[in-house]
Design goal:
Elements lengths: L6 E10 L3 H15 L3 E14 L2 E14 L3
Antiparallel strand pairs: 1-3, 2-3
Length: 70
């Protein structure tokens, strides 16, 4: 018999001065402090903040998917 799960999705926005990849890591690491049973991430949007004609920060909006506990 297979188990039945119900998942939830929450949106978070994270940023990094280094790269999109680092912004994803920052967001994921923060999400793991609050959410349990994370099964995946989906990057919904990527943006760059510009200041004084230079890239200031890389921002990602992502969906965090996690299984609800019983």
């Amino acid at each position: 018999m297979s188990s039945k799960n119900v998942a939830r999705v929450t949106h978070i926005i994270a940023e990094s001065p280094e790269s999109f990849e680092d912004a994803v890591k920052v967001g994921f690491e923060r999400a793991t402090k609050t959410l349990r049973n994370i099964t995946g991430l989906r990057i919904v949007e990527q943006r760059i903040s510009v200041k004084d004609d230079k890239i200031n920060t890389f921002r990602v909006k992502m969906e965090v998917i996690f299984i609800l506990e019983d």
